[in-house]
Write a structure and sequence with these properties.
Number of helices: 5
Number of strands: 9
Shape: globular
Order of helices and strands: HEEEEEHEEHEEHH
Radius of gyration: 17 Å
Strand order of the largest sheet: 7-4-9
Strand content: 15-25%
Length: 147
């Protein structure tokens, strides 16, 4: 997408947002919307951790988009959008009280797939960049209103 949009950038400002996992639209937390969530299997690596990903709650995502659209300064052509600290999928499942079991992994392939959101935090230092699993899960119940 970034390559496809590059041809328009001389005429208009194009910003490609690389959005991390949006809570509730992902494989783990989508289970929250089922009447009876099925038990999931999550990889557990040798260090005891489950897969780590860049997440963002829907309320935080909404706030970030409004603030980015309101900025007076020029935005970078590509911007990662997620909470600044990656989150373990098992911690999210626990915070949502979802049933899951570990599946032992002997390798580390796919253990940590994350985005560097340093630039986003620099652009929006006053936005509450929520990385806490319980707070991310809590946003699934928020009513989001556009200002």
């Amino acid at each position: 997408m970034e390559k496809a949009c590059a041809r328009w950038s001389p005429e208009i400002e194009v910003v490609c947002l690389r959005i991390g996992n949006v809570a509730g639209a992902d494989a783990v937390l989508r289970q929250c919307f089922k009447p009876e969530p099925s038990e999931m299997f999550l990889d557990q690596f040798a260090d005891g951790r489950t897969p780590e990903r860049s997440y963002i709650g829907p309320g935080t995502l909404s706030e970030v988009l409004v603030e980015l659209a309101s900025l007076k300064e020029e935005l970078p052509s590509v911007l990662n959008v997620a909470a600044p600290n990656p989150v373990q999928m098992g911690m999210l499942a626990n915070a949502a009280r979802l049933p899951w079991r570990e599946r032992a992994r002997s390798d580390t392939k796919g253990q940590s797939i994350t985005l560097d959101c340093t630039r986003l935090c620099e652009l929006l230092p006053t936005v509450a960049h929520v990385s806490d699993p319980a707070e991310i899960v809590a946003q699934l119940n928020l009513e989001v209103s556009i200002r």
